[in-house]
Amino acid sequence: MLIERIYDEDLAQASYLIGCQAKGEAIVVDGRRDIAVYQDLAAKNGMKIVAVTETHIHADYLSGTRELAAATGAKIYVSGEGGPDWQYEFDGERLYDGDTITLGNISIKAVHTPGHTPEHLSFLVTDGAFSDKPGYLLSGDFVFSGDLGRPDLLDEAAGGIDTRFLGARQLFASLRDKFLTLPDYVQVHPAHGAGSACGKALGAIPSSTVGYERLYAWWGPYLAANDEQGFIDELLDGQPDAHAYFGRMKRENRVGPDVMGERTLLSELSTEIVAAGLAEDTLTFIDTRSNAEVHEGTVARSLNVPSGKSVASHGAWVVNPETDKNPLVLLAKDQEQAQDMWDHLVRVGIDNVAGYVTGIEGLPTFTPKLIQPEEIDGFDAAMVLDVRNKTEHTAGHVPGSYQLSGGRIMWHLDELPIGGTIVSYCQSGVRNSVAASALRRAGYDVVELDGSYAAWNAWQQARESVSSN
User: What whole-number distance in Å separates Cα of residue 431 and Cα of residue 388?
Assistant: First the structure.
């Protein structure tokens, strides 16, 4: 048997390819939409992808289940659990608690583990060529390394009202009645790692075991003492802000994401075409450089989505395909970088990319306004806006600032002042540059705190040190 973990550092998301070498067949679990990685991996191991499935209706990325099925002819399996409000709306065989998918000597048993979502499945994997007992659990967003899937996302991102309490009780029951009944040696392979907003304290290690989690995860003592209320209180306390785009992911994943098919390579666009499109507001420019470079001058009304490990998440903060219909133009050093960024963007349903340019010469430019930490006290701001998470804000913030995380701002503009200047900041400046660019494009007058909170805090400490001496 082959189990391969395919990890996306951008969204801290893990998908899996499980294959039977004897029969040359494979299944992909929780795949993403840029599917070449799975096709290449299967081909490398002489396998054909014959089945695709997912643990639940995802909130943080757009599922590649339908994309893979269309490209390979694989059979789709999705959860049939959760009741009428949590049924997938596209074709596929429904899986219920105890149902099994078979690939040669491998059996993959669906285990209904509600809590994170009502329909959530985990998959117990048995390598029949080695043992008749399961040895692996693909736990999805149920159990992570050192943490659990948060039960409040339906409230935070999908329009639910107080569903978190039922979800928390369901998680407690799923742990007690399903997870902790498994042998300690069963390996646990979760769908997310550190950095994901699907939990509050995810570990960075890629896998764990039932026994290790039983002994050392934060929730272990609550289960051992059968303390459901203590468990619920601890689970719900301190969860990070949920990105607003999660609601779109939930809707699209339930209905079934659009199948893109084979994508052509992006073309380099001429300066004249891009300049005309920007003037007519029929194109949206994505400046992919660092915030420091953007602060030296950028394209007018452009969005800053820095290249690197957070293209998908930052892109989804500032581009909403449901309302933003302009094709995107990416700033990239070459076609390879542009193509890689597009791969990241399609993971969150941002498909409409017209092409790329390699520089901003000849395009209308704009230099963002900055304010130094020592200037903020006397600055006439309509709002000082902290775009970090609420936990970061609670730990320390510029006095009088208003917290609204970068991943929620464009969906909560009603919380911002109608007129005046907004001074914005994050921790070091990266998230702030992303959020500020989107606010400027929406017509707000935004001044960025240079160096953000880290610089302000250092200045504040230096000032206090001088005062004390």
Answer: 8
Q: Which amino acid is it at 12?
A: A
* pLDDT digits 0-9 by tens, 31-58: 999 999 999 999 999 999 999 999 999 9
For residues 164 and 152, the answer to whether their CB atoms sit within 8 Å is: yes
- Mean pLDDT (the chain) is 95
User: Which has the minimum average pLDDT: 160-164, 173-177, 271-275?
Assistant: 160-164
Q: How far apart are the first and last CA of the chain?
A: 68
**Are the C-beta atoms of residues 365 and 402 closer than 8 Å to each other?**
no
- Give the residue among 316, 358, 319, 355 at the shortest CA–CA distance from 339: 355
What residues contact 338, with CB distance under 8 A and at least 6 apart?
A: 266, 330, 332, 353, 355, 356
**φ, ψ dihedrals at 446, nearest 5°:** -125, 130
Cα 143 to Cα 154, 186, 208, 333: the distances in Å are 18, 13, 10, 40
Please state, in angstroms and rounded to a whole number, the distance separating the CA atoms of residues 382 and 276.
35
Closest CA to 248 of 142, 120, 347, 112: 347
Contact 403, 428 (CB under 8 A): no
Four-residue CA torsion sign, 345, 347, 350, 355: positive
Hey, what long-range contacts does 78-82 have (CB within 8 A, 24 or more apart)? 78/53, 78/54, 79/54, 79/55, 79/110, 79/112, 79/119, 79/120, 79/121, 80/119, 81/112, 81/114, 81/118, 81/119, 81/120, 81/121, 82/114, 82/117, 82/118, 82/119, 82/120
Does the pLDDT at position 193 exceed 90?
no
What does the pLDDT read at residue 469? 62
Collapse the DSSP code of 416 into the 3-class scheme (helix H, G, I; strand E, B; otherwise coil) and give the result: coil
Q: Which helix (H) or strand (E) holds 128?
A: none
All domains in the chain, ordered by first residue? 2-255 (3.60.15.10), 271-366 (3.40.250.10), 370-468 (3.40.250.10)
Residue 11 contacts residue 60 (beta carbons within 8 Å): yes
Q: Return d(Cα 389, Cα 241) in angstroms, integer.
A: 6
Backbone angles phi, psi at 279, to 5 degrees: -65, -35
